[in-house]
Amino acid sequence: MNLIESVSSYDLTGIEWSLAILCGMLIGMAKTGLSGAGLFVVPVFASIFGGKPSAGLVLPMLIIADFFAVKYYNRHANWKYVLKVLPWAFAGIIIALIVGNTINDKQFSHMISVIVIIGIALMIFQDIRKKTTIPDYWWFSAILGLGGGFATMIGNAAGPILSLYLLSMRLPKNNYIVTAAWFFFIVNLSKVPLHVIFWETITVRSLSFNLVMIIPIIIGAVSGFYIVKLIPEKPYRIFIIASTLASALVLFV
What we know:
Number of domains: 1
Strand content: under 5%
Shape: globular
Order of helices and strands: HHHHHHHHHHH
Number of helices: 11
Distance between the termini: 34 Å
Largest sheet: none
Number of strands: 0
Radius of gyration: 17 Å
C-alpha cells in the first residue's frame, strides 16, 4: 500500500480533513509559543479517529513540533526541574498504559474529555493565581508528575499540568518555554514504543497520515513564532478555552 492509499483509507470528509489540517497547524503553534492550542487538538482528533487510535496518531505530530521548539529556542533547559518530575511522569505513563488496555474506545474518549476539562480548569486556575506562589514540595511534583504522565499517555493532554508545575518553580519566560519543550520531547519519544508494541496505535498507516501533516505542522510552528507576538493574550486564551471545552463535551455524545 503506497502513501496515497494509506492516507485515503481513513476515508475522511472534507470537513474532517480541514479540521485535521487545522489541528496540525495548532500543534505547531502550541509548541512554539501559543500554549493552549494543543488542547483543542485532543478532542477533535478523538472525535474523528476514535479515542485510543487518536492518541497514537497525534504522538508523532507532537514529536515533530517538539523538535522545532527545541531547535528554535536553542537554550539550555533547567534540567533540575525536568529530572525532578520525569520519574513520576514515567510512572504515570505506565499506569495509563495499564488502564488503557482495560477500557473500550468510548470510555477512552470519555476519559480524554475529562482530562481535557480538568486541563482547562488548571489553565483558568493559573490565570486567576498568576501573581501567587505555589509551594515547591516534593509531593507537589510527584502528584503533578503522575497526573501529567497519565494525561500525556491517555490523550496527549498534559500541557496544563506541566505548566502548573513549572510555574510553581517561578522560571523566567525563556527558561520556562525551553524546559517544557525538552520535557515533552523526552516524554513523547519514550511513549512511541509503548504505542507501537502494546496499544498498536502507531502503524505504517498512521505514520503515512503523519507524513501528510508535516507541512501544516511546519506552517503552524513558523506562524507561532510570530503570531504569539501579535495576538493579545486574553482574547486568545478565552477563544481557546471556549472552543476546547466545546470540543471536549462532544466526546460525551
